[in-house]
Amino acid sequence: MSAKRGAHWAVYAALLMLSGLMLAPLLVAVSTSLKDIGEIYRQPPTLLPEKIVWSNYREALTTFPFLRYLFNTLVVVALSVAGSLLSCTLVAYGFARYACRWSQPLFVLMLSTMMLPGIVTCIPTFILFTRYFHWYDTLYPLWAPAFFGTPFCIFLLRQFFRTIPQDLLDAARLDGCSELGIVWHMIVPLSKPALLVVAVFTFMWSWNDYLGPLLYLQDERKYTLALGLTKFLATSRFEQYGASWNLMMAASLVVMLPITVVFFLAQRAFIEGITTTGLKG
Fold first, then answer.
1. Which fold has domain 59-276?
2. How far is C-alpha 191 from the chain's CA centre?
3. What does the pLDDT look like over 223-237, one tens digit per residue?
4. How far is 13 from 19, CA to CA, in rounded Å?
5. What's the distance, CA 134 to chain centroid?
6. Distance between CA atoms of 150 and 53, rounded to whole angstroms?
7. Most exposed of 35, 54, 200, 224 (fewest Cβ within 10 Å)?
């Protein structure tokens, strides 16, 4: 028993060490955000700040139009999450419950698009949105594609929908429920963990998206937070000591805070949705 308990403690110690290595960059970022600009460039470097400067956060958020960029980001995130939930739910339900000669080939074709890196399709997508839709320098290209479905989310929901007993859906049809009514009254309530996974993934992708705003946005008033941070860094390179890394770290931590809070609040349902998906092929 003691040997077994010792093995458990060894495993826990190893996990703690690995966790420390994973958290080291975050701790350095927090420490840097609380330092004075002179201390950052001091040699030898210090791990902990000699004097905590809380005003770095206030100065960082007032150096660039944080509230405007936050509003633009929230608009993109909200529309992306709504579009992804709507489109992926309907498409996944069709793949899960409607069998025809083309359903399996179309499903395989959809999965094959996941093998293409996004950088490969960014140029034809850019031409499509700018030349034919005239969406350059607008927020439309950042959220409109979500209303056409995401292959990974469709696959995730399709696998979850197949675990729902068919008898429940047949009973709803006998009671006169339409197909959209079945989706709304049966599928959605029973699939909240999987839908939450899709919402969290879409939220994180949209919030952290940098390439999309970089390609399509030119007017600085339409920037998102991810793109606004680069402007913040560019404008601080002409300071006396160089780039204001303390303010940059403070702004980055504030931008990172919402996705961290969302993940931890939805962690239990998120893990449940991941583990219960794919129980039925």
1. MetI-like fold (1.10.3720)
2. 20
3. 999 998 887 776 665
4. 10
5. 27
6. 43
7. 54
pTM: 0.85
Q: What are the structure tokens assigned to 103, written together?
A: 């359903």
What is the residue whose two structure tokens read 């007032």? 62
Give the residue from 221, 231, 225, 232 showing the smallest Cα distance to 210: 225
Instruction: Name residue, tokens 């980001």.
Output: 73
CA of residue 243 relative to chain centroid, distance: 28
Q: CA 112 to CA 124: how far, in whole Å?
A: 18
Tokens of 264: 């931890």
Q: Which residues of 82-105 are buried (b: 16+ CB within 10 A; e: fewer)?
A: ebbbebbbbbbbbbbbeeeeeeee
Cα–Cα distance between 167 and 188 in angstroms, integer? 16
**Residue 79, pLDDT above cutoff 90:** yes
Two tokens, residue 19: 């966790």
Closest CA to 268 of 181, 170, 200, 171: 200
The mean pLDDT of 46-57, rounded to a whole number, is 86
Give me the pLDDT at residue 131, please: 92
Q: Pick from 37, 142, 136: which is nearest to 79 by CA?
A: 142
Task: Please confirm whether the linkage preceding 44 is cis (ω < 30° from 0).
Answer: yes
Tokens read off for 6: 């010792």
Each domain of the chain, given as residue ranges in start order, spans 2-53, 59-276
Number of Cβ atoms within 10 Å of the Cβ of 20 = 10
Distance CA 153, CA 202 (A): 9
- As a dihedral over the C-alpha atoms of residue 38, residue 44, residue 50, residue 51, rounded to 10 degrees, the angle is 10
